[in-house]
Design a protein that fits this description.
alpha/beta; ornithine cyclodeaminase, domain 1; Rossmann fold; eight-stranded parallel sheet; seven-stranded mixed sheet; globular
Length: 321
């Protein structure tokens, strides 16, 4: 068996431009909605009180992936990443392993792509900067993706120094929001927080606003109050998963939201459901993170490598078997 290439985080980021990741993730939503790409719901393994592990398989387009990833929000205090793990990519004709990729980088790319794709699909037309609330690894990826799609960003983080650091790192087009209230009032907002505290309380959303909620991706997490969520046109990444995790699950449990009130982003992209219905409507995208998005990004990275392996001198191969 040939050596299997191992992609570090730097290799993943070097292989795929954030704007290209948006198009890869768009394909994932469309193909999953069509039934061509499949996945079971993610499996959680709690590691209280500090975090959890997640197993996320998917297949489609002649490929299959398994992402084994964790989320430990307190890790930055230990000088460790919040998210770490691996993505294992195989071809699905003979089942042969093709690549191993850093899960944190794959997750960041697809999180940024999904947040921005939802904003581009659901927000009313505006050239105003988007606000990104929470600029850890995934929030930074969201900001990079907006910039790659030629939209300026305002950044806010619970650690002000982190917001300034990321703004300096991203350069032109990235600024620091005056305060949290200012960031949350933007016409386009993406929240990428640990999901431990509600950001949008009753009456805080304004007419025409779009919010991509990326942080409440598991049981018990929330970034928006139930009463505020039900004021909006609600869109999820996939109903089966979203109805058990995150913000939509809270509204369902409270009896404030029904299945027919929630659209899926893939169906909107295919023209099967309506997204924004007028310029005054509030739209909310509730993301729980789909393994088919990881599949799309992993395949795109591997295909760039296969096209020009010499462009990836730092990728090493390991012998298995």
């Amino acid at each position: 068996m040939p050596a299997v290439p191992v992609f570090t985080a730097n290799d993943v980021y070097a292989a795929l431009d954030p704007s290209d990741a948006v198009e890869a993730v768009r394909e994932a939503f469309v193909e999953h909605t069509r039934g061509a790409w499949t996945m079971p719901s993610k499996v959680y393994l709690d590691a209280p009180p500090n975090g959890d592990f997640r197993a996320m398989p998917a297949s489609g387009g002649g490929w299959a992936v398994l992402k084994w990833v964790n989320s430990f929000p307190g890790n930055p205090a230990r000088a460790l990443p919040t998210v770490s793990g691996v993505v294992i990519l195989s071809e699905s004709e003979a089942g042969q392993l093709q690549a191993i990729l850093d899960a944190g980088a794959v997750t960041a790319l697809r999180t940024g792509a999904a947040a921005v794709l939802a904003a581009e699909t659901l927000a009313r037309p505006t050239v105003a900067p988007a606000a990104v609330v929470g600029v850890g690894v995934n929030g930074r990826a969201v900001a990079r993706t907006f910039l790659a799609r030629e939209r300026e960003v305002q950044l806010w983080d619970a650690e002000p120094a982190q917001a300034r650091l990321v703004a300096d790192e991203l350069g032109e087009g990235a600024t620091v929001a005056a305060d949290l209230a200012d960031a949350l009032a933007a016409d386009v907002v993406v929240t990428v927080t640990p999901g431990r505290e509600v950001l949008f309380h009753d009456g805080s959303l304004h007419a025409g606003q779009h919010v991509s909620l990326m942080g409440a991706d598991g049981p018990g997490k929330a970034e928006i109050a139930v009463e505020e969520l039900v004021r909006a046109r609600v869109v999820c990444d996939e109903w089966e998963q979203a109805s058990h995790n995150g913000d939509i699950a809270h509204a369902l449990a409270a009896g404030r939201l029904r299945r027919e009130q929630v659209a899926e982003l893939g169906k909107i992209l295919l023209g099967e459901e309506m997204g924004r219905r007028d310029e005054h409507e509030i739209t909310v995208f509730d993301s729980t993170g789909l393994a088919v998005q990881d599949l799309a990004v992993a395949v795109a990275v591997y295909e760039r490598y296969r096209e020009a392996p010499a462009s990836f001198p730092d990728v090493v191969g390991i012998e298995l078997g």
